[in-house]
Write a structure and sequence with these properties.
There is one protein chain. This protein is α+β, with helices and mostly antiparallel strands and 226 residues long. It starts with a strand and ends in a 6-residue tail after the last helix. The longest helix has 23 residues, at 198-220. It has eight helices and eight strands. 46% of the residues lie in helices and 17% in strands. The chain has helices at residues 31-36, 38-51, 96-113, 119-123, 133-150, 164-178, 181-184, 198-220; strands spanning 2-10, 13-17, 25-28, 60-69, 72-73, 79-80, 189-191, 194-196.
């Protein structure tokens, strides 16, 4: 069977996702280039899964572009992120072990790319960058907390540590503990103009962590010792 591709505009770039492969995506400033790059992204994703000991079913050609959603802003200026038709189906219990394995793989990659960094590495500023590397790590933790908050599964924001590694650990440990609850969150919710589901939370968590892992890899190459 052909596989579906869903494309969204996000902060001036186009991101193409493959819903059947959670965490598989590619981004470009041009929409058509993002779509054309998907077959290679699928190959890279399958190799990445194999590298983590994950078994996934292969996809057959051709691909079908199922949805293309442009970015838009809510009344308060927030850029609303896409909710695809593939985000709507409720999660089933049998899917949870694979999602847990994928979450563990993305976290292993993120921590691996900063292994050996000292305080100076984490706090070094890079021209043109919004955050230093420590700030990126904290952003990943806060974003994951925020995703959970959208579907009512986050702990109090006051409990989120300010230290990046502690923040990452606390949010991820919480997510894995409550993962079975995702099956019971079978509906959708709309907050500030954006629609969320349990499946969308996992899609975005995997995408966001992999995206910023690649981001940190690029910054790491600019550090003198790397």
């Amino acid at each position: 069977m052909p596989y579906l591709v869903c494309v969204e505009e996000n902060e001036g770039r186009w991101i193409a996702h493959v819903p059947d492969l959670p965490g598989c995506f590619i981004e470009h400033v041009n929409r058509e280039e993002a779509i054309q790059a998907i077959p290679k992204a699928v190959e890279t994703y399958i190799a990445w899964c194999e590298g983590h000991g994950l078994r996934i079913s292969g996809l057959s050609d051709p691909m079908i572009v199922a949805e293309v959603i442009r970015a838009w802003e809510s009344e308060d200026g927030y850029e609303v992120n896409a909710f695809f038709a593939s985000d709507r189906p409720p999660l089933i219990k049998d899917e949870l072990p694979q999602f847990e394995r994928l979450l563990n793989a993305t976290r292993k990659d993120l921590l691996g790319v900063v292994d050996g960094f000292d305080a100076d590495d984490l706090s070094r500023e890079f021209p043109g960058e919004r955050w230093n590397i420590g700030g990126i790590l904290m952003h990943v933790a806060r974003a994951e907390w925020w995703y959970l908050d959208r579907i009512g599964l986050a702990f109090s924001s006051a409990e989120l540590p300010d230290e990046p590694f502690s923040g990452l650990a606390k949010v991820r440990e919480h997510l894995l503990v409550i993962l079975p609850e995702f099956v019971r969150r079978s509906g959708v919710v709309t907050l500030a103009g954006e629609t969320w589901s349990a499946r969308k939370v996992l899609r975005r968590a995997l995408w966001h962590e992999r995206d910023h892992t690649d981001h940190i890899k690029k910054l790491r190459s600019k550090l003198p010792q790397w």
